[in-house]
Amino acid sequence: MSLAERDLKVIWHPYTQMKTAGMPIPIVRGEGAYLFDENGKKYIDAISSWWTNIHGHAHPYIAKKVGEQLLQLEHVIFAGFTHPKAIELAERLLAIIPNNQKKAFYSDNGSTAVEVAIKMCLQYWSNQGRTRTKMLAFKNAYHGDTFGAMAVSGRSAFTAPFDTLLFEVEFIDLPDADNIESLKSQISNLKSQLACFIFEPLIQGTAGMVMYEAQYLNELLAHCRKENVLSIADEVFTGFGRTGKPFATSHISEQPDIMCFSKGLTGGTMALGLTTCTEDIFNAFLSDDKLKTLFHGHSFTANPVACASALASMDLFLDPATAENMERIKNAHTQFGERVKNHPKIKTVRQIGTIIAMEWETGDNTSYFSSLRDRLYYYFLDAGIILRPLGNIIYILPPYCISNADLDYIYSKIEQALDEI
Ligand SMILES: *Cc1c(COP(=O)(O)O)cnc(C)c1O
């Protein structure tokens, strides 16, 4: 039996309709921007394996540090105990994110980082004897798949079976020059009920790489601060250079109260989530009353191997060569965008930093639209490129080590697809 056949006998895959899904592609090896299947076929990972990988696959430096950690200490309970890697990672991360962030809370992934953030906000208010349970979020937001994270995400086909069970969230439009004042007054009207405002800074990935301007986010956050509404920057996707700066919040001057990290945090090597907060939030849980404790934790909280992976990734991230690579990718994307933006099949091209997205013109032929995504997906797979269109939106967000030659190859295949599909 082939690997794919054995897989289908025992495995239920994420975001996959198992009845109609094609055979999964068994990947047996990774190196840099490449993945190799069992037959030795090479794929360029143009989406960084679900947006997680920033330095390339099976990176020797990360592997070395992870290996050393495994032989030193693989895991330890994190309540009542600590370990050097968790401390060092918190110190080093807090030093490079907005300087109002003072404490780090560990968990396992992006969704749990968001759950922790939401719980921090809700309990921040309840610990002070105040009832503020409503959340504010952007329309079409995506913050994860666990229940709290799903609740603050836009209602969609993905959430439909659970909608009646999700808590109350007020969804607002993305800010722009025309609506910013009305958004502010919406916030003012709701302020006494609002526990927090959660947002994906500058780009909504899952919504289809939808971008909005830093200036208006800054205004919204300033307004939240004025109205005493806590803010949560979900940097799970945008963190660690995706937007061309270290963090998406590096593009603005306002500082969120809470930040969430995962995906690129470990270089995409290990599962790890991190929620950071201000001193003010942390202090709201300090009490002689045990009931004011943040009762949250996971078995693998602050796993030392994951922390070692994150520290190794941080070393690579802070190497000036990485910033140069990010700049190189950004410039290459910009040139490519200029070249294709007037193509009759391209509706819009959007770019921020190392992320470029192209919206395919679908006309009004809906059956064409529904099959377009799959046709594009398999077209690129055949060409040895992993791109995973979101509906009619193709996006490239590669590991920063990708070569110019591979970028050019991806661009040329997209241009070819524009002519052929
Ligand atoms: C992917 C993502 C999450 C969820 O992270 P998981 O590790 O998949 O649970 C949350 N927020 C944003 C913005 C994301 O892109």
Automatic annotation (TrEMBL):
A Gene Ontology BP annotation from the UniProt entry: biotin biosynthetic process
Main location: cytoplasm
Annotated site (Participates in the substrate recognition with KAPA and in a stacking interaction with the adenine ring of SAM): Y15
InterPro entries named among the record's database cross-references: Aminotrans_3, Aminotrans_3_PPA_site, BioA, PyrdxlP-dep_Trfase, PyrdxlP-dep_Trfase_major, PyrdxlP-dep_Trfase_small
Subcellular localization: Cytoplasm
Assigned GO CC terms: cytoplasm
Sequence intervals crossing the membrane: none
Binding locations of substrate: W50, Y142, K263, G297, R388
Cofactor(s) in the UniProt record: pyridoxal 5'-phosphate
Pathway where it operates: Cofactor biosynthesis; biotin biosynthesis; 7,8-diaminononanoate from 8-amino-7-oxononanoate (SAM route): step 1/1
Description of how the protein assembles with itself and partners: Homodimer.
Main function: Catalyzes the transfer of the alpha-amino group from S-adenosyl-L-methionine (SAM) to 7-keto-8-aminopelargonic acid (KAPA) to form 7,8-diaminopelargonic acid (DAPA). It is the only aminotransferase known to utilize SAM as an amino donor.
Record's protein name: Adenosylmethionine-8-amino-7-oxononanoate aminotransferase
